[in-house]
Design brief:
The chain has 234 residues and is mostly helical. The protein has 11 helices and no strands. It starts with a helix and ends with a helix.
Length: 234
């Protein structure tokens, strides 16, 4: 319907494009345009920022959830930061870190780390207290409790947090490129919108959505792997 309406000018193709034009622009974008360079730049920034978010965010969330005094101290602050418009801080990070990759990585961390921390913290707080009490009665130390009860039970919540963080991180890197970059999918969206190239704009959006879908599928496979460990440990 979209193709028919646009080709017959029932709707203006300048503003909505149509599927065959989007496909043609996609081929041109990667064959003779900046498609691969944009994808590589955004991909490197996302991978570095997301990896740092995972390395810092999940352990921090586990520690916060395990120690009640630390949870009472930091949980209000984390909730405040999560509900604050973190995206509004993106221009400030560009001022601090410049126009290079560092500012984009910082924005990815800013957007992705809090969902990871919150999911890990919630998983630890919600651990089965009856199992923990039973293990303590047999003399189990914190290390054993963490490895055999808390972390296996936390797998589903942490995995859900990672899927949320993927979307937030992609949003962050695109926004960073949109604000201050001469390369990347965010810049491609900005340039396409400025020139009313709606086909190229749809191409960039499709690439981002596909990348998010692929990353989510990968983490689902990782979740299934750790879920087998969870069922053997709990």
């Amino acid at each position: 319907a979209w193709q028919v309406l646009a080709v017959n000018h029932v709707v203006d193709p300048l503003f909505v494009s149509y599927p065959t034009q989007i496909a043609s622009q996609m081929v041109t974008y990667f064959q003779t345009g900046t498609g691969w360079a944009d994808l590589r730049a955004g991909g490197e920034e996302f991978v570095i920022g997301f990896a740092l978010s995972v390395v810092v965010g999940i352990p921090a969330g586990i520690v916060i959830g395990w120690y009640k005094w630390l949870d009472a101290l930091l949980d209000p602050l984390i909730g405040f930061l999560y509900n604050a418009p973190r995206i509004a801080l993106a221009p400030l990070l560009v001022i601090w870190f410049g126009l290079g990759p560092a500012s984009k990585i910082a924005i990815v961390i800013l957007t992705a780390i809090l969902p990871l921390m919150i999911s890990a913290r919630s998983a630890v707080v919600g651990a089965d207290q009856s199992l923990i009490s039973m293990a303590r009665s047999y003399g189990a130390r914190d290390r054993v409790l963490m490895a055999s009860i808390v972390l296996p039970g936390a797998v589903p919540a942490i995995s859900a947090g990672m899927r949320i963080a993927i979307g937030q991180g992609l949003l962050g890197v695109v926004l960073a490129e949109f604000i201050a970059s001469s390369v990347g999918l965010g810049n491609a969206i900005n340039q396409a919108a400025a020139s009313l190239n709606t086909a190229r704009l749809f191409d960039a959006v499709i690439i981002i959505a596909v990348a998010g879908g692929v990353l989510t599928a990968i983490f689902r496979r990782i979740e299934r792997h750790f879920d087998r460990w969870r069922t053997t440990q709990v």
